[in-house]
Design brief:
The chain is mainly beta. It is 3% helix and 53% strand. The termini are far apart.
Length: 1011
């Protein structure tokens, strides 16, 4: 049998079979992810083969040196060398009809070029199966079909290489090496354990692919099965820095795909996805705390190493890490948590590019409208949300910059008053960690600082932060300087301090708006706000260039309150603004000071003391102490204009001291408002201008405007209404704070809500001032013409005294004596008679045309009602006349027409209280009415007259009802037909229908006919 192994081909074949198992087991370790792979050549230079030798120092010395754990190797009776490879064995046996050779125990040593330490392997036995019988006369070994290393297998090598396993098998059919027993690895301080063994897929040479295992040229993939646990020590390129320790626990194995150098740790597969089945990566820190990363799949991309002094890659197999990718799902996302930084980041994808020191956090899922779900970074109680976040690190692991692409927010708990900025944006956000840390927001930006009661919006906003290190939480670092790895995905990933974004200076451009506790405004081009904790800001704003600063007089007068007592509210518009924002938690917190407004400046200031409000326009405005009661403001323009109290002041420079008690205009003038309702409180189809003219004086304070002398209020849109009210004095109470704007020479003003913007802004976008209550003094005259396409369709007139109308509740009241007249079309044709008589001014008129309904009431007591309910009540000696007229302008005059001569459908109601109510009808756009007369009520008409305690008339039903109490019955005089005999009836209730001349009596107690 020994002669068999003297054959050159047989020895080489046996060594190749054993080395396939041992060498590729070693390869599996050496191509571990995150390691610089050094896959040694298994065939070193040297003699092609050697015959078996006696135990000499050539074999004994390597055995004693490299197999100290296995002393039997030095005493092995079988020793073979093939170049740089040596095989030791005690027995070599042929089995299975000479198709199998078994070696037990077995040890193999192979030398590596460039290494002082060889790779060694020991096993209880090695078994190689051949496709042809092995005989003493055989000149060839045949084809290896199967092989195995049985028992405990140990592999040792350079750089601390250790592989411990059990029962490795090799298959020619599948070209696989595999073991189902646990496998342990160690190399250069790294350790790993695969609980369910290993699989290695081999690749044959394309030139000799029919030789099976004898033609293997490379490995396609290596797979570690079951639970894989790794302890990795990643040394920084800067050897002075301490290595980073990572622990990886993957429940479903690991795979390395050799052609692409891709290593993948697997998480949940067939089992129900859960956090327990996710891959867990832990990074212990010198502080004793731990950073963790959970994901469903971890992919590491390696590449041929590029050394700094070489332009091309080194020898094949020398690999280094290129990128790390962690993946999750919507139900089981990737979660990074740093105990030290108090950060939790949630996403579906994490990618780290080592060369760029760039970490990308993404969420790949979208909602039903295609909008991506955001990555969520939580730090203490604060949050950063954005669908794509990029984090760049500088050398040494310090955070260099952070970029959010897509819409996002930075927010803090609503219940906390934060000095840190809250923000929202629609395009992108960047943090630059330079000498001056800076935040940059783009598109649809909104930022706020609750501590200073401050909000700002714009298209591009740059925020300079207070000069402290935002690369550490709360401005202090608790981590050792060498504890970070510049190419580690966890390096400073949570170091962006969301709770420490305290602004030093904000620069906003493009349609900027500012909102504070006492100020709001717009800057069309640029706004700069500097933040200070001093009550008096020392600004560095440039002084404006003004021409001939000639003062046109100051605005003073009245008695001011104590300094700082009156704060008020200010709205401004300008091209640019620069100012200081005061902080510190005192009474001045959130106040703007050292304000410069430039370019088309407009300011509306409404003071807490309403007498101190003003409106100003110009080119440049300076307010050193802001818009307070004790303020001093300088306005420059060509000319500058200030409207306040009784004067309109113009000049190239105006110094303002707005401490007047109220705005007063002496002499006649006009003010215009835009209203959604008419004088009766009814909604208008479109807003209509309301012009109020006065003859003597107008004063305006806060939400109240007072007018004196020949007041005339006009509202006319030329299409649907033309209304006019006259009185001796008028008081209007507004629902909102108002600002007055001078609209031309003289005392001509426009009123609007104080937050609606500048006078030059689009009127359609301005907030219309709501009128809460109108009070008219002395004699009041009202005329209302209803129009259709500009033509008068109905007319209403009234006269009384001291009118008060609350437009919010609809309640109104006035004093008598007075009267109300109304003429409107009888769209239901209820007044039409053919032939018939209609009343004209003094004489009846025959007509068959559609009538107008005429109602005329007089009273001497008072008037009250509700506009919303469309009810009017008249009291004391009330007389009401109703009936048809031929056209607008005609009246029924009962002083010249007797009761017997009243036209048909015409009646007179007399009582102590008359209620008129408008009612809707089934006909669209048609409104009818009812009358209700109480106390001493009397009805007079051509065919029916009567007295009752209560008389009602329903114009829709064409129905009169007369009611009485049992103590005082109703009396009715009825003439049936034009020439009938008048009957007198006494009873409790009567219903009369004039269209049919039909009388229904109830509980009649007396009937009498009269001539």
């Amino acid at each position: 049998m020994n002669s068999l192994f003297r054959q050159t081909r047989g020895i080489r074949t046996l060594l190749i079979g054993i080395l396939l198992i041992g060498a590729y087991g070693t390869y599996a370790m050496l191509t571990r992810p995150l390691l610089h792979v050094d896959r040694p050549e298994t065939a070193a230079k040297g003699p092609r083969s050697q015959k078996p030798q006696q135990r000499t120092s050539e074999f004994r010395k390597p055995a004693e040196t490299w197999f100290r754990e296995d002393p039997w190797v030095a005493e092995a009776g079988k020793q073979f060398r093939d170049g740089g490879r040596i095989l030791y064995a005690k027995q070599l046996l042929l089995q299975d009809d000479d198709h199998t050779v078994k070696v037990e125990p077995v040890a193999v040593l192979w030398e590596l070029e460039g290494e002082d330490v060889p790779v060694t392997m020991t096993a209880a036995s090695a078994r190689i199966e051949s496709s042809s019988p092995l005989t003493q006369n055989s000149a060839s070994f045949g084809r290896i079909t199967r092989g195995a290393l049985q028992g405990d297998v140990r592999i040792r090598g350079p750089h601390g290489l250790r592989i411990d396993g059990h029962n490795f098998n090799i298959s020619d059919d599948s070209l696989r090496i595999f073991s189902s027993a646990p496998v342990m690895f160690a190399w250069e301080g790294h350790t790993a354990v695969a609980q369910d063994g290993i699989e290695i897929q081999l690749l044959p040479s394309q030139e000799d692919d029919d030789q099976g295992l004898m033609s293997v040229s490379n490995v396609q993939w290596i797979r570690l099965n079951g639970r894989v646990q790794c302890d990795l020590m990643l040394q920084d390129k800067d050897k002075k820095r301490e290595a980073t320790h990572l622990k990886i626990d993957a429940r479903n194995g690991f795979e390395f795909f050799v052609p692409t150098h891709t290593a993948t740790f697997m998480g949940p597969r067939t089992q129900r996805p859960s956090v327990e089945n996710q891959i867990l990566i832990e990074r212990p820190l010198p502080s004793g705390m731990v950073d963790t990363l959970r994901c469903s799949q971890l992919t590491l991309q390696l590449r041929p190493e590029i050394r700094p002094d070489e332009k091309t890659s080194t020898s094949p197999g020398q690999l280094e890490l290129d990128t790390i990718r962690a993946e999750g799902s919507r139900a089981l996302p990737v979660i990074f948590q740093s105990e030290q930084e108090n950060v939790i980041a949630t996403m579906t994808n994490l990618l780290y590019r080592l060369d760029q020191r760039l970490m990308e956090l993404q969420n790949t899922f979208t909602d039903a409208e295609g909008r991506p779900y955001p990555v969520r970074i939580q730090q203490e109680a604060s949050e950063l949300l954005s669908p794509w976040i990029l984090v760049y690190h500088a050398d040494g692991g310090k955070l260099q910059s952070l970029e959010c692409r897509g819409p996002g927010v930075i927010r803090h708990p609503e219940e906390d008053v934060q000095e840190s900025l809250s923000a929202a944006w629609s395009e992108s956000f960047s943090f630059l960690n330079g000498e001056q840390p800076k935040l940059i927001f783009r598109k649809g930006v909104q930022i706020a600082q609750p501590e200073r009661q401050f909000r700002m919006s714009g298209e591009l906003v740059e925020v300079e932060l207070e000069n402290r290190d935002p690369g550490t939480i709360h401005g202090s670092s608790s981590q050792a300087p060498n504890a970070q790895r510049s190419d580690s995905p966890q390096a400073e990933s949570g170091s962006f301090a969301l709770g420490g974004l305290k602004p030093k200076r904000i620069l906003a451009t493009q349609n900027v708006e500012l909102f504070g506790e006492q100020i709001s405004g717009k800057a069309r081009e640029q706004m700069v706000v500097n933040f200070t904790s001093d009550n008096v800001a020392h600004g560095n704003a440039q002084s404006p260039v003004v021409v001939s600063p000639v003062s046109s007089g100051g605005m003073s007068g009245g008695v001011s309150g104590e300094p700082g007592a009156a704060r008020g509210f200010t709205h401004f518009d300008a091209d640019t603004l620069e100012a200081y924002m005061v902080a510190g938690g005192g009474s001045e917190t959130g106040r703007l000071s050292n304000i410069w407004l430039k370019g088309s400046v407009s300011v509306d200031h409404t003071a807490a003391d309403t007498n101190q409000s003003f409106n100003a326009t110009g080119n440049v405005l300076r307010a050193d102490t802001g818009f307070l009661a004790e303020q001093q403001i300088s306005l420059f323009g060509d000319p500058a204009v200030v409207v306040s109290t009784t004067r309109r002041i113009e000049g190239q420079r105006i110094d303002i001291d707005p401490r007047q008690r109220e705005v007063t205009v002496e002499g006649s003038g006009r003010i215009r408002l835009v209203s959604d309702r008419d004088f009766q409180g009814r909604p208008l189809r479109k807003p209509s201008p309301l012009d109020i003219y006065w003859g003597d004086r107008m004063s305006f304070a806060g939400r109240t405007a007072s007018f004196r002398g020949k007041i005339r209020a006009v509202m006319n849109d030329g299409e649907s209404h033309d209304m006019e009210l006259k009185c001796a004095g008028m008081l209007i109470h507004f629902a909102d704070d108002l600002a007055l704007t001078q609209t031309g020479a003289g005392n001509s003003f426009e009123a609007r809500a104080s937050s609606s913007g500048s006078p030059a802004s689009n009127q359609a976008t301005q907030k219309r001032p709501g009128i809460r209550q109108i009070e008219c003094e002395s004699l009041v005259e009202v005329r209302v013409d209803q129009l259709i396409a500009g033509n008068i369709d109905a007319q209403h007139e009234a006269r009384f005294s001291d009118l008060v109308v609350n437009l919010h509740t609809g309640e109104f009241k006035a004093n008598g004596p007075g009267w109300i007249r109304s003429t409107q079309p009888d769209r239901g044709n209820r007044m039409k008679v053919a032939p018939g008589i209609m009343a004209r001014a003094n004489t009846p008129v025959r007509t068959s045309e559609t009538a107008f309904v005429y109602v005329d009431t007089e009273f001497i007591g008072n008037l009250s009602g509700n506009l919303n309910d469309r009810i009017v009540r008249l009291k004391q000696h009330v007389t009401g006349i109703f009936g048809p007229v031929r056209h607008l302008g005609e009246r029924i005059n009962i002083s010249t027409v007797s009761t017997a001569d009243l036209p048909p459908r015409t009646g007179i109601l007399r009582c102590e209280e008359l209620t008129i109510a408008a009612v809707s009808t089934p006909v669209p756009d048609e409104t009818s009415f009812t009358l209700e007369a109480d106390r001493n009520a009397r009805l007079e008409s051509q065919q029916l007259s009567g007295d009752a305690d209560k008389i009602t008339y329903d114009h829709v039903k064409e129905q009169f009802i007369l009611r009485a109490t049992r103590e005082s019955p109703a009396t009715v005089f009825h003439r049936p037909g034009a020439r009938g005999e008048v009957r007198s009836l006494v009873g409790q209730r009567f219903e009369y229908y004039p269209t049919r001349d039909h009388l229904v009596a109830n509980e009649i107690i007396g009937v009498q006919a009269s001539q």
